[in-house]
Structure formats: structure tokens, C-alpha cells
Design brief:
Layout lengths: L2 E4 L1 H7 L7 H8 L4 E4 L1 H14 L2 H13 L3 E3 L16 H10 L3 E3 L18 E2 L1 H9 L1
Parallel strand pairs: 1-2, 1-4, 2-3, 4-5
Length: about 140
């Protein structure tokens, strides 16, 4: 089963049942992939969802993740510092490395630098491609 790290904006785009990317949220709860998270990632998910929706919605989303059988928690010990343009994005890279994730799903161009790094090799997939893969 694929182990995936979702960038916050990709998670946010997937939680509404009216979204073209709802297949990502539904796919998680159907066990189509394992979502890899850290405490830092969960905190960012909650903060951003609360600011874009409401704190109650954010709490429900995070609670659903914490309670899911298809979410694995990691405490990254290595801080790789591979993304210099937006160091806050490194929490996703560090989690992907710790989890030996198949890829990070992100629309953020800051992750493009990972294509140029030989080690560790961390793949990035766009949200549209990931959603299409889940539909098959």
C-alpha cells in the first residue's frame, strides 16, 4: 500500500464532498493509501483548516485523522532542510523521509527542488495526478 504525505493545501482541497479532489479524502478512509503525519503536520492542518473554515471543522478533520486506521504517526529525528525557499515545508519532507513514503502530494512549487536532489530521493506528485490514480 502506498504511504503518502499530503501537503496542507491538498488535504484542504480534498475534505469537501463537493470538491473534485474528494476522492483523496474518501480514498484515505477506504484504505486506498496510508497517510503519514507528524505532530507538526497535524498542528498545521488544524491551524489552516480553522482559518479557512471553522475551528470546529478543523477539530473534526484532525480527530478523523487521529482515529483512522489508515493514518500513521512519525516523529522525524532528522531535519534535512532540503527546502530553503520556504523552510516551513520541510516538516512534510522530514516526515516523508522518516516514513519512507512513496511520495508527497503537493501543488507547492517549493517542493520542485526535490527533483534535483539525489539523496534522499523523495518523489512529489501533484494533487490532480494522485486523485486520478485513486479513481482507477
Amino acid at each position: 500500500m502506498k504511504r503518502v504525505v499530503l501537503d496542507t493545501n491538498c488535504l484542504l482541497a480534498s475534505i469537501s464532498s463537493r470538491s473534485d479532489f474528494f476522492v483523496v479524502w474518501r480514498g484515505l478512509h477506504e484504505g486506498k493509501y496510508i497517510l503519514c503525519v507528524s505532530n507538526d503536520i497535524l498542528a498545521e492542518y488544524e491551524e489552516v483548516i480553522a482559518s479557512k473554515a471553522t475551528p470546529i471543522v478543523a477539530k473534526h478533520v484532525v480527530d478523523a485523522l487521529v482515529d483512522s486506521d489508515y493514518v500513521e504517526f512519525f516523529d522525524p529525528q532528522f531535519k534535512l532542510g532540503l527546502i530553503t525557499q520556504d523552510p516551513d515545508d520541510n516538516k512534510f519532507v522530514d516526515c516523508a523521509f522518516a516514513a519512507n513514503a512513496t511520495f508527497i502530494v503537493s501543488q507547492d512549487h517549493h517542493f520542485d527542488v526535490l527533483k534535483t536532489i539525489e539523496f534522499p530521493k523523495i518523489a512529489v506528485m501533484r494533487l490532480q495526478s494522485f486523485a486520478s490514480m485513486l479513481k482507477k
